[in-house]
Design brief:
Length: 248
């Protein structure tokens, strides 16, 4: 092990190296992974932070927005001094501080249908946590087309949902919802509990690690629905839809 990892890495990832499901081989897989996080918001911030801390070697954070005071209640990568800065830039800086070994690239852009395939191409995995339906569908379609695994989630008020997509193998996001809703409920309009966003984002990071490691049962072919106010969770099974325009 000493020949594979530096002394600092052995100490940094010590709790991973003793895990049977990770070990030296798994940690190397994390360190060689290239992950795109779409959205540096309430979900993307905790997901990216835990992925960086876990040792994911290359992380790109895509977000076109700037940090605002109302973000700080749930977007844990940002501080008061970041207000007004591009989110992608501020998030990348925070991730480098969390793990100086991580190669973090900010991408100050909105991921649209026109540019999504280029953004996801060649990635090990994509994490999508925006509250914009058009972005979610664009990223889903691009991941399916480029055969890139996807972890996608949402949160509003006291509830959240998340699922994994293994392109061409399991149901994709469009299999479940078909088309973006005409008027989606946003956190801005409906509100959201900060720790609820943190919990869903953290679970998304767990799922991402499972997929990168090739361990456990992926949350694919099912959507996990969490109600934090009631303290319940349930998995809703989904199968690929024959008429899906992304993967059918």
């Amino acid at each position: 092990m000493a020949g594979t990892f530096s002394e600092g890495q052995i100490h940094r990832y010590a709790r991973h190296l003793v895990l049977r499901e990770v070990g030296g081989t798994g940690q190397r897989r994390l360190m060689e992974a290239d992950v795109l996080v779409v959205g540096a918001g309430g979900l993307g911030c905790p997901a990216a932070l835990y992925l960086a801390a876990a040792g994911v070697g290359r992380i790109t954070v895509a977000d076109h927005d700037a940090v605002a005071l109302e973000n700080l209640q749930r977007q844990i990568l940002f501080r008061d001094q970041d207000i007004g800065r591009p989110k992608a830039e501020a998030a990348a800086e925070a991730l480098r501080l969390a793990n100086p070994e991580a190669l973090v690239r900010p991408l100050a852009m909105c991921v649209t249908a026109e540019g999504a395939r280029e953004a996801v191409r060649g990635r090990s995995l994509v994490v999508e946590g925006t509250d914009d339906p058009a972005t979610k569908f664009a990223v889903n379609d691009a991941c399916v087309a480029e055969h890139v695994p996807l972890v996608i989630g949402g949160v509003v008020r006291w509830s959240g949902q998340m699922m994994a997509v293994l392109p061409r193998k399991t149901a994709c996001y469009r299999c479940v919802f078909e088309e973006p809703p005409a008027a989606a409920e946003s956190c801005e309009a409906a509100g959201v509990l900060g720790p609820a966003a943190g919990a869903v984002g953290t679970l998304m990071a767990v799922e991402a690690c499972k997929l990168l490691l090739g361990r456990g049962e992926p949350l694919a072919g099912r959507m996990r629905v969490l109600d934090f106010l009631k303290g319940t969770s349930r998995d809703v099974p989904w199968t690929r839809r024959a008429g899906c325009t992304a993967c059918g």
